[in-house]
Amino acid sequence: MSLRRDTDALAHLTTGYEPKLLEIADDSDPLLLKVSEPVPVEEIACSETQHLIRDMIKTMYAAPGIGLAAPQVRILRRIIVFYLPAARDDVNKSGVPLTVLINPNVMFLDDNKVSDYEGCLSVPGKRGLVSRANKIRYRGLNERGEPIDVIAEGWHARLVQHEFDHLNGILYPSLMAQEDKLLTVDEWKALTGK
Ligand SMILES: [Zn+2]
What we know:
By secondary structure, this protein is of the alpha+beta class. It has four helices and eight strands, in the order ααβββββββαβα. It has a five-stranded antiparallel beta sheet with strand order 1-2-3-6-7, with helices on both faces. A three-stranded antiparallel beta sheet has the order 4-5-8. The protein is globular. Bound molecules: zinc ion.
């Protein structure tokens, strides 16, 4: 996805605000194990929330990452931001545009689970095999407070489940099977040829 499109997608958000980079908490921070609070709908339009969203997007791109949840920047609110580059879209190949998802809920649409390696900005330098539902429906509100209702498959579904877990204090290593060990990025590259 091009930078041009990212900028356009954000054009309606608060103008005249220069977003700042936030520090990303790593897994030594107990805040990451806490359950985040919903955002009251009337607070979505508040400058505090809008600025946080802008800061999260900037922080995610700078990291670089494809998803970030508010607790990762030590704000215990149910807000996630993500996008899926076309190259990582195993189902539609077209990618998923930058999405802000507030107070999400996730429904599993089939019993099919697939395993793949995940990384996390809060678990730096590591990769781990995680089994997840292949198809989900997620709902929530966008940055304008408008409803989002999407059916997602493959990596799109994996990404949303990963970010959603952060809102419930869950980090992916706790979901790994006992026999699978957390790999360093070098070990993961050697194993997968990536
Ligand atoms: Zn993560």
